[in-house]
Amino acid sequence: GILHTPPHHRRNLRRKEKARMSAIQGMMDNQALTKKEQKEIESMMQDMMFREMQEVYIGLVDRCFNKCVNNFRSRKVQSSEKECIKNCVAKSIAHTKRVQMRFTEQNQKLNAQMQAGAAGGMPPTQ
Amino acid sequence: MDPNAMTGVQGIKYNLIAMAKLFDSLSKSCFKKCVSRFGQADLLVGEMTCTDRCTLKFMQTSEIVSQELQKAQQQEMKQQQAVAQMQNSFGS
Question: Could B15 and A6 be called an inter-chain contact, meaning their C-beta atoms sit closer than 8 Å?
């Protein structure tokens, strides 16, 4: 029932971690952080990722329930509703992937521009 | 902090937070779907029945979503492992 552990944070950590590392690497590259500070940041990031995984799960339940389950003549989820929920989850994941991809791209672009700017004068305007 | 350890105080804390948030979502959704008349203070019989069924369906939905998420993440893991293996065997 509802009392189960929210799913499997650890498994999706790696992919999301990559998306974030590129953003954060940019922030961290320009600073000299002590080992202790790095550990702190690591543990903070892990905590953020657990929270985010939880938010993803809860958000999906909310969104897919609202989109897919709209009649209450029965107390059981119908097979068509179940199909809808499955598709809703799959589409949401695919959508997030795409957004992450574009987000990472943009961040890398901006970082490159900023570093070019730092190395020698004004960054190229777009 | 070991990412594989959803145990102890941290684990329980996350579980409780998740439960609370799910309950909140459930409550909002079912009110929206089931309750629309405000001519009186008591719930109508139909609204009560709707709310009962809505709650049950919401909880079933949370199970389905959990299963689908797990499936998707396992797929992701497999793909990543396959890619890693390929890279290893080609010595890149």
Answer: yes
Mean pLDDT along residues A80-108:
95
For the purposes of burial, counting CB atoms within 10 Å of the CB of B49, is it exposed (0-12), middle (13-18) or buried (19 or more)? Answer: middle
Residue A27 Cα, gap to closest chain B Cα (Å) = 22
pTM: 0.73
HEC per residue, chain B:
CCCCCCCHHHHHHHHHHHHHHHHHHHHHHHHHHHCCCCCCCCCCHHHHHHHHHHHHHHHHHHHHHHHHHHHHHHHHHHHHHHHHHHHHHCCC
ipTM rounded to 2 decimals? 0.81
Picking from A6, A15, A27, A35, the residue whose alpha carbon sits closest to that of residue A115 is A27
Report pLDDT digits (tens) over A2-40. Answer: 444 455 554 555 556 666 666 677 677 767 778 888 889
Q: Which of B68, B75, B79 to mutate to test the interface with A (most CBs of A within 10 A)?
A: B68
